[in-house]
Amino acid sequence: MPAPLRCAAVVLAGGRAARMGGGAKPQLVVGGRSMLAAVLAAVPDAHPRVVVGPPQPVPGDVVVVREDPPGGGPVPALRAGLDAVDADLVVVLAADLPFLTTDLVADLVADLRAHPAADGVLVVDATGRDQYLLGAWRTAALRRRLAGPADAAPAPRSLRAVLDGLQVRRHRPPVPEGRPTPWTDCDSPADLDRARAAVGVPPHPTG
């Protein structure tokens, strides 16, 4: 029986968070913990767990790396994260998913393992929109798509271009009524207020 494929996690935690007034958006608190802490808690057994972005508080076993150039966007960030990965599979996640669950991550990885011809599995939200920063991937497939200019083809410039060139399965997770969706992200102060309200915290200034 083949050995099970190992799984790493890369969390993209860069960006300037301009709509949040700057600062470290992943460190904003929802439900008593930072959004980054919530995402890392959803991948407790991944190895390594890699956070891409500026220095910020993380557990001692988490590797923090910086994309080049800093703030250069998700493609350089993903490339930097994969440089720290030696596992066959990698979960690629945004750092602002306060309601991400271990069950959803496990479902993504299990789906990918069950379909050897697939390069990746990503979440599709209730509107049918692909969530590019909520998926599980074969590390080698991502590296091929991120090949630099010295290789046969130039690297894609957008994350969508990277992933659209792969054999991708779509996963539509069930969401219990009255619960926040696991793909809920926080790109604006209004998003953050809604996320906090979902866990019973009155809106208050960003921070």
From TrEMBL:
Record Pfam families: NTP_transf_3
Task: Say if the entry is tagged with keyword Transferase.
Answer: yes
What is the protein named? Molybdopterin-guanine dinucleotide biosynthesis protein A
Keyword Transferase found? yes
Q: Where is this region: Disordered?
A: 168-190
In this chain the MobA-like NTP transferase domain maps to: 9-150
Top-level taxon of the source organism: Bacteria
Q: Which UniProt keywords apply?
A: Transferase
Q: Name one GO molecular function term.
A: nucleotidyltransferase activity
- Tell me which species this is from: Klenkia marina
